[in-house]
Design a protein that fits this description.
272 residues, mainly alpha, Four Helix Bundle (Hemerythrin (Met), subunit A), Helix Hairpins, 2 domains, 13 helices
Length: 272
Amino acid sequence: MQIREVQNIFLRIRSNKIFELFVISVIIFSALLVGAKTYKLPDPFNQITFFLDWFITGFFLVEISIRFLAETKKRNFFKDFWNIFDTTIVLISLIPIENSEAAVIARLVRVFRVLRMVSFIPELRILLTSLIKALPQLGYVMLLMFIIFYIYAAVGSTLFYNINPELWGDIAISLLTLFRVMTFEDWTDVMYETMEYYPLSWIFYISFIFFTAFAFLNMVIGIVVNVMEQEHAKVLKAEREANHEPTIKDLDAKLTAVQTQLEQILQQQGKS
């Protein structure tokens, strides 16, 4: 059997939907196994979970090997971030859990194996990529939010310090109190306490909630959705190019060329 035939076998296995679903099932089972290990289990169950963990690690090693061998150009395999991520997780998972100084690291890596599901589900990849690409724009939103937080914390610490120093003692504590208000964690208790001394202090809280919980949240959602639409458009474009499907621009260019040819033919007929 030639090397090309063997590679085609691995390629068919990698592209098989049943194989992908089985890998996803093993990833989910691996996450459940990590959760089960956080409980105090009888010795027989500890032995079972130990062998299951090594079975899962071995399966992932075989699965990543199949994906690597199915690649036509082996260099391209490591040009994909998700392939590097999956390979790193699998290799670090080979660290023995028991009787090792690196046992804690090995256990933590086994927790992150559930993230391998992202590399198998395109929608999750688009979502994560969009979040990462939206970070620069979100950074400016976070900066503006911090400015609003800081102004309100300074005002709250100045006005409400004598009412409750535990909540408004200094600007750092005031920031924590405002975060509590923004997350709606018993914020009405804080408001009613200050309203006993300043009846109009509700304006302070309502305006703060409007700027942070509503306005900024919608801004963040808008930025993420916009980036997701751009990423989705890029994916569709790449799929069309891979399938050699013409885009609207290509069709428009071809239609223009046909119209030009028709005009030339009509002109020639008119001259003749």
